[in-house]
Design a protein that fits this description.
The chain is an alpha/beta fold and about 575 residues long. It contains 19 helices and 21 strands. Helix 10 links the parallel strand 10 and strand 11. It starts with 8 loop residues before the first helix and ends with a strand. The structure holds alpha-D-glucopyranose and calcium ion (CA).
């Protein structure tokens, strides 16, 4: 009945992702830092979670908030010092918490020493750490560059009359993984962090590290036929990729009891297993984008369709469950630093529904198979901030997309409106709401990104005191997952009533126990026919006990319940 793969601590863990810039500021400069984070570890521990994943904290000029690293062996000035890091890690371990760091090695910063040397001359020994296209060959074949207004992934560097490749902004030049010297530098750096005691890495856009470095012209027809029409799939399909990952496993990962997570950019259901099949000795888990990509209106930047289809949502998560049903291991998430707040996007952030909807989404995340990656602030029911003007945004992506609309003479007000409920990343990056005081208790200075006005109602201090709060429910649900891990972590998942447009229903079971999970995704509630199933004890319920009439269960708006079957 259960997944036949070996039991592992990282399969049973709940991961809590902290965006360090927005968690807690200790020195009043408006930027979250490691000392601030360390001061809040008792809160983190009280959640019942096991692993903290921190977004990048290395030396960085912050073009993309740390995803542009200028020194892999240092701590970003704004965040503190290596001594602060050592204290933080020790304090985490003292509390039984593990730390997973972000590993960003598809690219570094253009301010990294390697790149400064590489760009200085065509014969510099570091030249081959990056990808270059000499201008005498003409313009390089198109490659997309995220975060650039002109959309190009090549930038001309006049000093050596060449273009360099950057899949993200021009401040993030791509590293050349074909160069064994570069690979050895990366492995050595990873080993240094593991020797310090970190417990794993979340690997940023790792499928992108390998590319066809002859940079052929790719036609739209080939892109459509061979790569689902997706640039990210093409960009992630480079030769050598799995050799590099196996080499990394051998030289680094296999030496420690740690966990790894691939940000599965460009992976598909057909290719994901190649990263996490234990027999291949590469990585442990991968996360896909199919779920969070659902429901965006084509042709617009992350504009949300308010009528997104629950049946499509169910199909995506069910299909992905089946990928890892017998081998490998999956993950589940609805929010992170690249996504809007899950409550606004998948639930309902109106005051009358927000508590029930938050608890319902939490029930979903913590009752699915696969390791949950839970985003900080979602345990409070934090919402999109819904900025009215571009000046409030800090994110390089949103600013570039706005620039594209502007240059095309497009609808700028429409763009800003679309981001309110849609996908602008800053919606999920606003400071953590500790209390109802100034700046929500995040900082005594001017926060780098505005604090949401709803901090007076939605904050940790108030919710800790209230046994019925969103926060209290989250803790209860974490505990339930752990207490019932045979069923809720390892048990088999079966989707029921797949065409029900309002209710997501499934069972989880091991050899001994079977539970039914019922989730209403609508403000109109929903109903579900239990057929011959006999409902027993309710393990958790975010509202009143289920109403059953004959075979029909009627769910209230955003109701969630896990009920044991007899
Ligand atoms: C990943 C990160 C994102 C970053 C990008 C480039 O998708 O999650 O925040 O901007 O990679 O490093
Ligand atoms: Ca600070």
């Amino acid at each position: 009945m259960e997944n036949k793969t070996e039991r592992k601590w990282w399969k049973e863990a709940v991961v809590y992702q902290i965006y360090p810039r927005s968690f807690k500021d200790s020195n009043g400069d408006g930027i979250g830092d490691l000392k601030g984070l360390t001061s809040k570890l008792d809160y983190v521990k009280s959640l019942g979670i096991d692993i903290v994943w921190l977004n990048p904290i290395y030396g960085s000029p912050n073009a993309d908030n740390g995803y542009d690293i200028s020194d892999y062996d240092d701590i970003m000035k704004e965040f503190g010092t290596m001594a602060d890091f050592d204290v933080m890690l020790a304090e985490m371990h003292k509390r039984g918490l593990k730390l997973v760091m972000d590993l960003v090695v598809n690219h570094c910063s253009d301010e990294h020493e390697w790149f400064k040397l590489a760009r200085s001359s065509r014969t510099n020994p570091y030249r081959d750490y990056f990808h270059w296209w000499p201008a005498e060959k003409g313009k390089p074949p198109f490659r997309p560059g995220n975060f650039e207004v002109d959309g190009s992934g090549w930038r001309f560097d006049s000093l050596t009359n060449s273009y360099y490749l950057h899949y993200f902004s021009y401040k993030q030049p791509d590293l050349n993984w074909e160069n064994p010297k570069l690979r050895q530098e990366i492995y050595a750096m990873m080993n240094r962090w593991f020797k310090k005691g970190v417990d794993g890495f979340r690997m940023d856009v790792i499928p992108f590290i390998a590319k066809d470095t002859s940079f052929p012209v790719i036609t739209q027809k080939d892109l459509d036929e061979k790569y689902e029409g997706r640039w990210d799939v093409y960009q992630a399909s480079g030769p050598g990729l799995h050799n590099y990952l196996q080499e990394m496993n051998k030289e680094v990962l296999s030496k420690y009891d740690i966990m790894t997570l691939a940000e599965g950019a460009g992976t598909t259901k057909a290719t994901a297993m190649n990263f996490v099949d234990p027999d291949r000795k590469e990585l442990d888990m991968a996360y896909h984008f199919d779920g969070v990509s659902l429901g965006y209106v084509p042709g617009y930047f992350k504009k949300m369709d308010p009528n997104w289809s629950l049946t499509a949502f169910k199909k995506i998560y069910s299909d992905w469950d089946s990928v890892f049903a017998n081998k490998g291991w999956g993950t589940i998430y609805l929010g992170n630093h690249d996504q809007p707040r899950m409550l606004t996007r998948w639930g309902n952030d109106a005051p009358e529904y927000r508590e029930a909807a938050s608890k319902m989404l939490t029930t979903f995340l913590l009752s699915m198979r696969g390791t949950p990656y839970y985003y900080f602030g979602d345990e409070l029911g934090m919402t999109n901030i819904k900025f009215d003007k571009i000046e409030d945004y800090r994110d390089i992506e949103t600013i570039a997309e706005y620039g594209k609309v502007k240059n095309a003479g497009g609808d700028l007000k429409g763009f800003i409106d679309n981001q309110k409920n849609g996908g602008a990343r800053d919606n999920g990056r606003t400071p953590f709401q500790w209390d109802a005081g100034m700046n929500g208790g995040f900082s005594t200075g001017i926060p780098w990104l505005k604090v949401n006005d709803n901090k007076n109602d939605i904050n940790a201090e108030a919710e800790e005191k209230n046994p019925n709060s969103v926060l209290s429910y989250f803790k209860k649900m974490v505990k339930l997952r752990k207490d019932q891990k045979d069923v809720l972590v390892y048990g088999k998942y079966t989707l029921l009533d797949k065409d029900n447009p309002d209710v997501y229903a499934y069972t989880r079971e091991d050899g001994n126990k079977k539970v039914l999970v019922l989730l209403s995704f609508r403000k109109t509630g929903g109903s579900f026919n239990v057929g011959k199933m006999q409902l027993g004890e309710e393990w958790i319920n975010n509202l009143q006990p289920l109403k059953v009439n004959g075979n029909t269960v009627t769910l209230q708006p955003y109701q969630a319940c896990i009920v044991q079957l007899k």
